[in-house]
Specification:
Layout: E1 3-5, E2 14-20, H1 29-45, H2 55-67, H3 77-86, H4 98-108, E3 112-116, E4 124-128, E5 134-136, E6 142-144, E7 149-153, E8 156-159, E9 177-182, H5 189-207, E10 210-215
Parallel strand pairs: 1-4
Antiparallel strand pairs: 2-9, 2-10, 3-9, 4-7, 5-6, 7-8
Amino acid sequence: MEVSVHSSLSSYSFGIIHYRNVTVSESPQMLKGRLQLFQESLFFDLKDKKPADFEGITEWRQLFKHFGKDPNRYRPSTEALLRRISKQNYLPSANSAVDLNNFFSLQYETPLGIYDAEKIRGPVEIRVGSKQEQFEGLNGRENSAENLIIAADDLGPFGSPSVDSVRTAVSKETTEAIHIIYFRPSLPTEDQEKLLDSLKHMFIQVNGGTATSQII
């Protein structure tokens, strides 16, 4: 699948993993346990600081402001996860793809999105959304793409570092998927590669199939 980055975002990096022949299912107990323990650890960390005080969250809030998106209204997705955890409203297990996505997002303090590739139409471009664009999000409402970094296909926006769309959501019927890692700007290249490699291998270990990856 062709994925490109608009010239306006050429100074930023994104990780792309394309999975094929995967089997998304209920998460194995190992993954459920790791996600739960990590959330409990973060809960205690959040007693001493706010989600916005985490280095990765601070960077993404600044990036939202840079492009003209209010981070208090449209929060980086990792911050939204941390805010839930700070209230001891732990993330329930969704499936073996989404749980891994959330675990790595929390671990690296950066947004990730996992998308059903068969629901994507045409080439994908990562760009800044326009005033006219909006999409139905997994948060249960229509979201404005204006001034938001988005992943878009021929049908419009389907992903972002804030919230992803219902249209391309991964389910247990998914057999081909695209992972987009929205790297935080200060993350060194070697750490980007480490994140990408770790995520790819753990995803295949849990869900089977094959994967190709690149940083663009």
